[in-house]
Amino acid sequence: ADIDLGEYEHYMLKEIFEQPTTIENAMRGRLNYDEATAIFGGLNLSSQQLRQIDRIVLTACGTSWHAALVGEYLIEEFARIPVEVEYASELRYRNPPMSDQTMVFAITQSGETADTLAAMKECKRKGHTTMAICNVVGSTIAREADGGIYLHAGPEIGVASTKAFTSQVTVLTLLALYLGRMRHLSYSAGQNIIRKLKDIPKQVEKALECHEAVKTIAEKYASMNNFLYLGRLYNFPVALEGALKLKEISYIHAEGYPAAEMKHGPIALVDEQTPSVFIVPRCGIYPKVISNLQEVKARKGPVIAIACEGDDRVAELADDVIYVPDVDECLQPLVASIPLQLLAYHIAILRDCNVDRPRNLAKSVTVE
Ligand code: G6P
C-alpha cells in the first residue's frame, strides 16, 4: 500500500488514531437536528416502504459481525423492530423463515467477503430488500445491494479492523435513530441522541489519551497466554471485539463473554495467570457488573477494568484501570473499544508480532 504512515509505526496504530475523524466522517451530512433524525442519501426507499419493515436481519463476518450485534441492541431499543444477527457463513446455507417485510443489511468493510456476498444474494433471491453498510466504494457487495450506507472511513490497511468497526457502529446508531423516528422515538429523544453523537469525536479523542497508560499495562500482562473479556449490554459485543483483536494480532487465546454468563463456564478458567478485562463504564446495571468483577477477584484472577473517568470504586477493586470518558450507555462501544484496540496493539508489539499482517489472516476473505 502506498498510503502514508505519517508519524506512525504501523497502519493499525495510525487507523486507531484516525477514529475521531473517521467517526465524524460517518456522520457528516447525515444529522438533521431540526427534525431530530438522520438522513441517508443511498437507501433508495420511500419512508412508506421503510415504515413497513417488520423485521431486520443483519449479516456479516468477523469484526463486522460484532458491529452488527451492537446494531441489534440499538435498533431494537430505538426503533422497536426485531433484529436478528446472522453469521453470513451460516445464513447462506440456512433457510430461516423471514417475513416478506424483512429487510436485510450486509455489513462489510471491504464489500468483498465471499460469505457475506453469498448470504446477501440468497436473501435477494427470496425477494428481500438487501442493503449494504460498507466502506469500500463500488465494491461487489455495494454494487449488488439495492441501496446502502457508506462508512467514508478511508482505506483500512491493517488486517485487524479498527476504524471500520467504530464507523459501522456510528452508522448503525444513525440508522436506529432514523428508523426510530419513523416509529416510536420522540422528538426530544431524537435530539438528545444527536447532541450526544456530535460530541463523540471529541470523546474518542479523549479516550485516545489512555495510550501511555495502556502501554504500561500491556507490559505487565504481555507474557500471559489466556485472557477473558467481559462486558454486558452494549459492552458485550465490545468484549467480543476486544478478545478478537488480541487473538488476531498477538496470537493469545482470548474469550469474550457477557460478564454474567461467565459463571456458567469461563469462571473455571480464572487463576492468577488469566487476566480478565472488564468493560465496566457507568450504566444501569453497573452494580451487577461490579459484582461479576468481584467474583473474578475472589478467585485470584487479575482484573483490568475499562471504566469511566472518576470511578474510584473500580480503582479499589481492579488491579489496573483504564479510564474513558463518560458517555451515554448506547454510545459506550465507540469509546470503550479504543483502549481494547490499543491493548491488543501493544501486547502484539511486545510479543514481536507483525501487527499489520498477522499470520493466517487476510484483510478480506474472498474465498469460501
Ligand atoms: C476478515 C478480516 C476481518 C474482517 C472480516 C470481515 O476476516 O481479517 O478484519 O472483520 O474479514 O470483513 P469485511 O470486509 O466483510 O468486513
From TrEMBL:
<dbReference type="GO" id="GO:0004360">
    <property type="term" value="F:glutamine-fructose-6-phosphate transaminase (isomerizing) activity"/>
</dbReference>
<dbReference type="GO" id="GO:0006002">
    <property type="term" value="P:fructose 6-phosphate metabolic process"/>
</dbReference>
<dbReference type="GO" id="GO:0005829">
    <property type="term" value="C:cytosol"/>
</dbReference>
<protein>
    <recommendedName>
        <fullName>Glutamine--fructose-6-phosphate aminotransferase [isomerizing]</fullName>
        <ecNumber>2.6.1.16</ecNumber>
    </recommendedName>
</protein>
<dbReference type="GO" id="GO:0097367">
    <property type="term" value="F:carbohydrate derivative binding"/>
</dbReference>
<feature type="domain" description="SIS">
    <location>
        <begin position="46"/>
        <end position="185"/>
    </location>
</feature>
<keyword id="KW-0808">Transferase</keyword>
<feature type="domain" description="SIS">
    <location>
        <begin position="217"/>
        <end position="358"/>
    </location>
</feature>
<comment type="subunit">
    <text>Homodimer.</text>
</comment>
<feature type="active site" description="For Fru-6P isomerization activity">
    <location>
        <position position="363"/>
    </location>
</feature>
<dbReference type="GO" id="GO:0006487">
    <property type="term" value="P:protein N-linked glycosylation"/>
</dbReference>
<dbReference type="GO" id="GO:0006047">
    <property type="term" value="P:UDP-N-acetylglucosamine metabolic process"/>
</dbReference>
<comment type="function">
    <text>Catalyzes the first step in hexosamine metabolism, converting fructose-6P into glucosamine-6P using glutamine as a nitrogen source.</text>
</comment>
<keyword id="KW-0677">Repeat</keyword>
<keyword id="KW-0032">Aminotransferase</keyword>
<keyword id="KW-0315">Glutamine amidotransferase</keyword>
<keyword id="KW-0963">Cytoplasm</keyword>
<dbReference type="GO" id="GO:0005975">
    <property type="term" value="P:carbohydrate metabolic process"/>
</dbReference>
